Structure formats: structure tokens, C-alpha cells
Amino acid sequence: MIRNGIEYGMMQAYAEGFALLAGHETLGIDVAKVAELWRHGSVVRSWLLHLTATALLDPEGMDSIAPVVADSGEGRWTIDESIRQGTPAPVIAASLMARFSSQGKADTSNKLLSPMAKCSKCVKSRSRILCHGHHARCQIVVVFCQFPAQDLT
């Protein structure tokens, strides 16, 4: 199961790296060509990179894929074990949280974060004081929304 947790982290790193390359529109980077180049001689070459390169060769296929990543439970088990041991595993934990987020499990907290982000732009001192109070209340709501009611008893 630990291997699966490691795989979660590696998959997330590939996805984020290629998203950064694709997002740099001014350079016009062909991410499929980069993946293919890396697949044949880079330190990051692997079976996961092979799968990534193959997927990137089919842009229409990529467009038809929903941006939802399931979790099979192994990542959860790995993080549970990390907590049990007290052994930090932040990359694996972050990759698991990214999967949860892709599944829509962060929608409520993201909606609640939006007004807080607007509030953080307050500039005038009086507005800032009022905004900070609102911001603090919103943060408390977000914290409580992250846990099901049965966990709070």
C-alpha cells in the first residue's frame, strides 16, 4: 500500500508539472513533445510518464476526460499509517487532498473562501477592521464545514 501512496505523489507531480508547461501560453510549449522527449532519456522517465506521453498524443481524447480523479483507498491508508507512526508524508497527503478536491469535495470550502478573498483586499483602516472580523468568522465556518457533524461530538 505504501507503493500506492508514493505513486499518488508521483502522479500529482507529473500532472502539476505538465499543467505548468501547458499554462505558459507565450512560449507555445508542445507538452506532448516534451513528454515524449523526457520519456526517452530524462531522470523523470517512468511508466507513469509513458502513460502521460501516450495520453498527451491524443488532444481530442484529453478534452473528453473529466477532471475527476478517483482514490482507491491506498492513499488514505498510507496517510493513516503516516499519522499512526508520526512520520511526515506531506507530498502523499497533498496528492490525496488534490484527488478529493477534483471529486468536488472542496466545493463548499471554495465557495466560502471566495468572500474571504474579496475581504482581504480591504485597504482603508476602518474597512479593514470590519473586514477582518468578517474574515475571522468565515474562517471558523470553513473549519467547521471540513468535518462531518458526527466528528464534532
Essential attributes:
69% helix, N-(1-d-carboxylethyl)-l-norvaline Dehydrogenase, domain 2, 153 residues
Secondary structure elements and their pairing?
Elements: H1 2-23, H2 31-39, H3 47-56, H4 59-63, H5 74-85, H6 90-102, H7 107-119, H8 125-145
Helix pairs in contact: 1-5, 1-6, 2-3, 5-6, 7-8
Just name the CATH architecture of the largest domain: Orthogonal Bundle
Classified by CATH, the class of the largest domain is: Mainly Alpha
As for the CATH topology of the largest domain, it is N-(1-d-carboxylethyl)-l-norvaline Dehydrogenase, domain 2
> What is the number of helical segments per DSSP (H or I, 4+ residues)?
8
Main sheet, how many strands, which sense, barrel? none
| Number of distinct beta strands | 0
Please estimate the helix content: 55-70%
Secondary-structure element series: HHHHHHHH
Structural class: mainly alpha
Query: How large is the radius of gyration?
Result: 20 Å
Q: Which of globular, elongated, flat, extended, rod-shaped describes the shape? A: globular
Low-confidence stretches: none
Mean pLDDT: 80
| CATH homologous superfamily (4th level) name of the largest domain | N-(1-d-carboxylethyl)-l-norvaline Dehydrogenase, domain 2
N-end to C-end Cα span:
31 Å
| Domain tally | 2
The portion of residues forming beta strands comes to under 5%
